[in-house]
Amino acid sequence: MTLQVFGLPVSRGVAIGKAVLVSSSRVDVAHYFINADQVESEIVRLREGRDVVARELEMLKRDMPDDAPGELAALLDVHLLLLHDEALTGATKQWIIDRHYNAEWALSAQLEVLARQFDEMEDDYLRERKADVEQVVERLLRALARGATSALAPAPGKSTEDWGGEEPLVLIANDIAPADMLQFKKSVFKGFVTDVGGKTSHTAIVARSMDIPAIVGAREASRLIRQDDWVIIDGDAGVVIVDPSPMVLEEYRFRQRQSELERERLARLRHTPAVTLDGERVELLANIELPQDAPGAFESGAVGVGLFRSEFLFMNRNGELPGEDEQFEAYRAAVQAMQGLPVTIRTVDIGADKSLERMSINELRHEHTLNPALGLRAIRWSLSEPNMFRMQLRAILRASVFGPVKLLVPMLAHRSEIRQTFEMIERAKQQLRDAGVPFADIQVGAMIEVPAAALLMPLFLRHFDFVSIGTNDLIQYTLAIDRADESVSYLYDPWHPAVLRLVAGTISQARAAGKGVCVCGEMAGDSSFAPLLLAMGLRSFSMHPSQIASVKQRILRSDTQKLMHYLNDILNSDDPQARYRELVAGDGVRPASLAA
């Protein structure tokens, strides 16, 4: 029977495929594909893990006190039977062979299948045996984790080819951490659905960066959808259709073809300069997460990288931070890939929804903080780890010899933070001078993503060469909304008058001071905002490469002189979005009254 699940659309388009469920087991597991030549060794890992658990259970039985209840021994026997049951380990082995899942992922996938079967049993006693299966799987997952450093286990972060067999796949999960999203960045998955998350949660941002349909905040999706169900993800409407009828399936396949044609048409604008109808040149830059994203940014027609999110170099490393040389090689690769175009590297922005396995020498973890969005993150974390921070600064400075590099510092709000940051930069420079290592004179910019920073622009403009507005966090902190929390996502409003006035004021003051100003948050990549940002005076946008063509199309159709006449009216309105729609026609040029 066809089922519909609703959520928040965060990446447009249509995806059709078989569901792959990422289990929400109480034991954290890694999810990655293995190469064909690793299948046999992964099966050996599974078998060795099973044997370890079997020995543990046998020892528990052997060492059981004489006065222990008889039911306990019977329960251990049940667990042993389950452990060797083909429905568990045999089927798990098949996931490894057919889909090239790592052993932990394969176990989680099979647990989902078995849990569904137990839930549907009419007999209460049999239905309650699901808990036994979960306990056996969790014990097996722990055994695999303990042996993860075995020579048979794939090395963490090892590059593997994505695998999905011949059928298209879509990923369904309670949530997907940014680190896991990186594993799937060049993925076989055609789309993503998560139970939790907001439109600008980092999972949503990375999904958009992959340019595939995605829906977050779908609440019950991972519970209602089964492994291998056929699923349609409507990334425009925020609807997940499970087990669609042939007629519905054909309709969405037609929409897929139409979307591909539109992409091909927009791709023709790749090398067209972004110039408005009245001759204003606009700079369209790219946001990237890893150095291997840079060639794609260059090919998209971006005139530089406006935001290199360096924190992704720190993820999926089992708590080991990248060294200076490793960072330098990554930054240099990105700079060289841009072939002389500028690259803006943001210092590590860890915290909130982007955590490390080990956040500091004290092994701080973001989930132990009551409110991680307001905790030790971004520049606060960097300043608390001075050795790590100077290491990153030296790596960035060294890369500046190979092309134009800018340094961007996130989440500044205090004069003391500004002072400490520049002291760190100067110390890093002096260390390189003492070592005889060359570096270029680079521009230093500040991210404006805290209302305090937006309200202290004169202070920031005295110290920094440019500013970059991070609208995602600016909206979050202005409206006191956790942008990753779907329960309050309806209050996350980029059209809120307070947000628009802070953005407009920041752009105006930067331009008046002759300093560069860019918007690198999600507003920059939303073509519907382009005319309003142009009216505010913005001439530098940074977004994911896949968004550049649609934003460029909107810019080519815009007349900034006409748009500027509407700006004050929109900013002073209680409902800026409604007023914007009244005044500005669909092409961002003509008043609505003249659109006919």
Secondary-structure topology with pairs:
Blueprint: E1 3-6, E2 8-11, E3 14-22, H1 39-62, H2 70-84, H3 86-99, H4 103-119, H5 124-128, H6 130-146, E4 169-173, H7 178-183, E5 189-194, H8 202-209, E6 214-216, H9 221-224, E7 230-234, E8 239-242, H10 246-267, E9 283-288, H11 294-299, E10 305-309, H12 324-337, E11 343-346, H13 379-384, H14 386-399, E12 405-409, H15 415-434, E13 443-448, H16 451-455, H17 457-463, E14 466-469, H18 471-479, H19 497-512, E15 516-519, H20 530-535, E16 540-543, H21 548-556, H22 560-564, H23 567-571, H24 576-583
Parallel strand pairs: 3-4, 4-5, 5-6, 9-10, 9-16, 10-11, 11-12, 12-13, 13-14, 14-15
Antiparallel strand pairs: 1-8, 2-6, 3-7, 7-8
Brief account:
This protein has 3 domains: 1-18 and 171-220 and 227-267, Phosphohistidine domain (Glucose Oxidase, domain 1), CATH 3.50.30; 34-146, Enzyme I, Chain A, domain 2; 281-558, Phosphoenolpyruvate-binding domains (TIM Barrel), CATH 3.20.20.60.
User: How big is the Rg?
Assistant: 26 Å
Assembly state of the chains shown: single chain
CA-based shape: globular
Largest sheet: 8 strands, mixed
Look at the structure and give the mean pLDDT. 86
Helix count equals: 24
